[in-house]
Amino acid sequence: MARHMDSDSASMAHGAPAPVLEVRDVTKTYGGHSATTHALNGINLTIAAGEFVALMGPSGSGKSTLLNCIATIDAPTSGTIMLAGTNVSRISRSRLADFRREKLGFIFQDSNLLDSLTARENISLPLTIGRVPAAQIEADVVAAATSLGIEEVLDKYPYQMSGGQRQRVAAARALVTNPELVLADEPTGALDSKNAKLLLESLESINQSRGATVLMVTHDETAASYCRRVLFIRDGRVFTELDRGSDSRHAFFERIMQVVAVQGGVDDAR
Amino acid sequence: MLAKLAFGNMRKLLHDYAVYFLTLVLGVAVFYAFNTMSIQGDFLRGDVGETLSQVGQILDGLTVFLAVILGFLMVYANNFLMRRRKKELGLYQVLGMRTGQVNVVLALETLLVAAVSFGVGIALGVLVSQVLLFVTARMFATTVQHFSFFFSTDAFMLTLVCFGVIFVVMMLFNWITLRRVRLIDLMSSARQNEKQFVRRLPLSIVLTAAGLVLMGVAYWRLIRDGFPMDNSMQGGFIITTVMVAVGTFVFFYGLAGTLTALLTHMRGFYWRDLHMFTTRQIASRVNTTALSMGVIALILFLAMTAMTTGMSICNTLNAMAEKGTPYSASISVLPTDPVADPIDLEAEVAKVGVDLSAVGSHATVRIAVVPSELEGDTSTLQRISELTGETIPKGFEHAMVGEVVSLSDFNAVRALLGMEPVSLDEGQYLLLCNMDQVEPFVNGGLEKGFSVTVGAATLTPARTTVIDDASAVLQDNGLGANPGTFVVADDLAASLPTYQQVVDVMYAGPTEEGDAALKGLEERLGDSLGERSALTTVDTVTSVLADGTTTTGLISYMAIYIGFVLVIACAAILAIQQLSNASDSAGSYRTLSELGCSERLIFGSLRAQVAIAFVLPLAVGLSHSLCAISVVNELVSAFGYSDALDGMTLGLVLFALVYGGYLALTYRMAHGIVRSAVRTTRRAL
Q1: Domain spans, chain A
Q2: Whether the predicted pLDDT of B191 surpasses 50
Q3: Which among A79, B49, B342, B439 is least surrounded, fewest beta carbons within 10 Å?
Q4: Strand partners, B366
């Protein structure tokens, strides 16, 4: 943890590190003229390389829409999203798949592993699609699996694994290409607390050991407390954020709870 | 409310499984169209009409047989769809619907699908049958005399009954499915399906190898033994059949594991693009559908063999009829007692009032038989075999080569055909033979100076080759095949009793006049000779060719009918399996797309999956039928014609069109399913 802080302060010394993700004045509206829904309302946020950020918000706050836009699965109505120096709305449809594969990694709530493939094959998918040589694939897959502690399930099929193992296999699949940004959508949503803890510790460790940048959407305060920074989103914009600083995880958890309580109070007052 | 639900479900079914619906419609249409055969005769010449009503009766029987097969496949397809709908049926019950009400919904659905497909099918069938009338007319070499739009109540009723029974059976199966399963299983059935069942590798390889060996041995046995000619070979043939069937199933059971193992070891291939995914998808499907793949391979085998051999037999029969009719007409008589009561045929014909000289030129052939051939000694072919050391060609083991005609009679026939006369020296014979299969074998004997004993004389061959031109056919007949006839000096031939006497006629005037002059001769001659003749026949070119077209017409219709129904049934099952696979795997395709897989790769994988699912059983079926066809071809060409392959090509082309059409349609629809899955945003993200 200290090493992480050092590297952070080191990069600070050279000025602000180049942001991996920069979201500027992004809006997204649904529906026609009569009943327009503003899912995103001019949202701004920046995530630097090596950060581990949580995105929290109640249902309908726009966090899923934002994630879809960042993931290049959906397009914003206005505003720009810069990912690793590229404006994602400028990427042609034909290049979009390549871009997703090279720059992004995904972890979903339901692991979305392919049933017919073993863990090893599931993890290797982004590499085989990218035509990485077979020998290289083997090494990369084992490295990713080791960093998530799932070497022993590599030759099992999804139905032979526990929910937690499946989720960590999915995480390994997201990491194996060393993407600029890992997007995790409620990764602990379908897990019991023990497996959720295991997965979050894994994410925390790969964030530190491999320097992976992770953006995690969650509504679980415990999950958020593993992150270095928490963005609270409401009505389509960021309404506040918390930095963990040197707090212990427990202390950070208390602070998050306070914000959530205040948010709830505001809702109640309305 | 229940009706509304059923109606909605049917519309969904029609949309998602249009191929299934299409097959029902095609099935109904073909059943109806082919069963209008009897009524088609009303529009054609009288004698063709009679023939057609006989053909129609045979096709009726065939329809029942095909209905059973089609019914079996449709019930399978229906059960397959039901299995996929378990969750939906469970949901109805969770929402408080009673089992009885769910049954009503299912029954209504089946009824609606049946009604719609039956209605559309009959409409299509009525149209097809109008076209078929003209095809029939062409096939029977006649014209439609008074065309008017027609509808066959008989064909309609037969189709209605067949499909009615099929739909009732489907309904019963639906009810049984619903009764047997528990609610919890219904609701969790989707999860159960995710489980991959993979066989152990060594077992897979052993199974595949065993399957291949069984099939190979069966092929070898079939090629060695041919089709059973008599009862003693029946048992061996059944063993061969069982071996090929078992081999096919065992092969498919082991294939998935073997294939995966093989490809996994091709690292450069396996770990690139979506090859890994495609392999696993196919392997998992082959695993769960090994049984149906085996059944489909065998049915395709049946369909292809029926279509191609049917066509080839027709071609051969047509060619044979043409080759077998060098004369305008042949009058033949077999005396009951050739020794005590010989018959002078020309005189008998004159006696019943036909003046042959007025009809045209004619020649008489008196046919005797080499005594040794009659007395059950070693046959001529066996003795040739002993002399040359060659084995008798297959199918000719029991052929009789021992007919004898005199040189004068033979030269008279040659003169009738406008050919040069042949001559013989003392102690020599000539041999007539025009069957390609046996000619080289017999020529081998002639080269070695094969001798034959006729009466007191032992004769040697005058030539080293047989005479195989038109004069080798001594009388008009539908086959035109003569395995061997000896031509000997007149005095030798006269010493033997005449077993058959033939008068060949070449008309002087037009065919119609000649035919008219000989009309009724067969009956009159038969009445006049009475007990003196064992068999009296009058064959004209016209009558022989007409008999031929009846047979070939019937065979063509049966071949196309059987082939078509079987092929659409198989293709429909494959299509339904592929479409449900595509929709089952929609989530996987979406995940692939989100992982950054291009649509080109995704659709490439889909194309490979659909193509392999169609090609795999086809390849096995084709391999079986190539083996069977080669044996059939050998058998057919035994009659002297080896151009049977032309007809087979036509059959295969027809087959490829139907099967390929289903393949293309299935891919288009699967493509649609996957595209919508890939392009729809995941709501949960």
Answers
A1: 2-264
A2: no
A3: B342
A4: B501
Question: Do strands B403-406 and B485-488 pair parallel, antiparallel, or not at all (unpaired)?
Answer: parallel
Cross-strand bridge partners of residue B488: B406
Is residue A99 packed enough to be buried (19+ CB in 10 Å), middle (13-18) or exposed (0-12)?
A: middle
Q: How far apart are the first and last CA of chain A?
A: 41
What phi and psi, each to the nearest 5 degrees, are found at residue B554? -60, -45
Q: Is A220 on the interface with B (CB under 8 A)?
A: no
* Distance (Å, whole) CA A186 – CA A175: 17
Interatomic CA distance for residues B472 and B434, integer angstroms:
6
Structure tokens at B605: 């994988």
| B379-407: pLDDT as tens digits | 888 888 888 888 888 777 777 788 899 99
First to last CA, chain B: 36
- Strand pairing partners for B540? B329
- Of A149, A206, A154, A152, the C-alpha closest to A175 is A206
**H-assigned helices in A47-133:** 63-70, 93-103, 119-129
**DSSP letters along B323-340, please?**
HT--SSEEEEEEESSTTT
Contact A115 B196 (CB under 8 A): yes
Which pLDDT band holds residue B119 (cuts at 50, 70, 90)? very high
What's chain B's length in residues?
Answer: 685
pLDDT at B128 over 70: yes
The candidate with the shortest Cα–Cα distance to A106, out of A160, A153, A176, is A176
Give the three-class secondary structure for A191. Answer: coil
**Looking at beta carbons, which residues of chain A come within 8 Å of B277?**
114, 116-117, 121, 125
> For residue B322, with 0-12 CB atoms within 10 Å meaning exposed, 13-18 middle and 19 or more buried, which class applies?
middle
**Structure letter (DSSP) for residue B532:** G
Confidence of residue B685 (pLDDT cuts 50, 70, 90): very low
- Give residue B255's identity as a one-letter amino acid code: L
Residue B124 scores a pLDDT above 90: yes
Contact flag A109-B684 (C-beta cutoff 8 Å): yes
Per-residue pLDDT, averaged over B482-508, amounts to 88
Task: Give the rounded percent of residues in chain B with a pLDDT score beyond 70.
Answer: 90
pLDDT at B195 over 60: no
How is residue A234 written in tokens?
């409401």
Contact assignment for B595 to A101 by CB distance below 8 Å:
yes
Judged by DSSP in three states, A113 sits in coil
Taking the C-alpha atoms of B96, B98, B104 and B107 in order, what is their torsion angle to the nearest 10 degrees? 90
Distance from C-alpha of B508 to C-alpha of B628, rounded to nearest angstrom: 47
The alpha carbon of residue B94 is apart from the nearest alpha carbon of chain A, in Å, by 24
Q: Given CB atoms, is B597 within the 8 Å cutoff of chain A?
A: yes
DSSP string of B204-258?
A: HHHHHHHHHHHHHHHHHHHHHH-S--SHHHHHHHHHHHHHHHHHHHHHHHHHHHH
The answer to whether A70 faces chain B, any CB pair under 8 Å, is no
CA distances from B533 to A9, B337, B338, B398, B529 (A): 122, 8, 9, 26, 6
B667 confidence band (pLDDT: 50, 70, 90): very high
Task: Give B595 or B316, the one with higher predicted confidence.
Answer: B595
CATH of domain A2-264: 3.40.50.300
pLDDT of residue B639: 57
Kindly state the helix (H) or strand (E) to which residue A55 belongs, with its residue range: strand A52-56
Q: How many CB atoms lie within 10 A of CB B683?
A: 7
B280 touches chain A (CB under 8 A): yes
Lookup: tokens for B318? 């047509």
Q: Is A117 on the interface with B (CB under 8 A)?
A: yes
ipTM above 0.95, yes or no: no
Residues of A with Cβ-Cβ distance to B685 under 8 angstroms: 64, 67-68, 71, 73, 108, 185
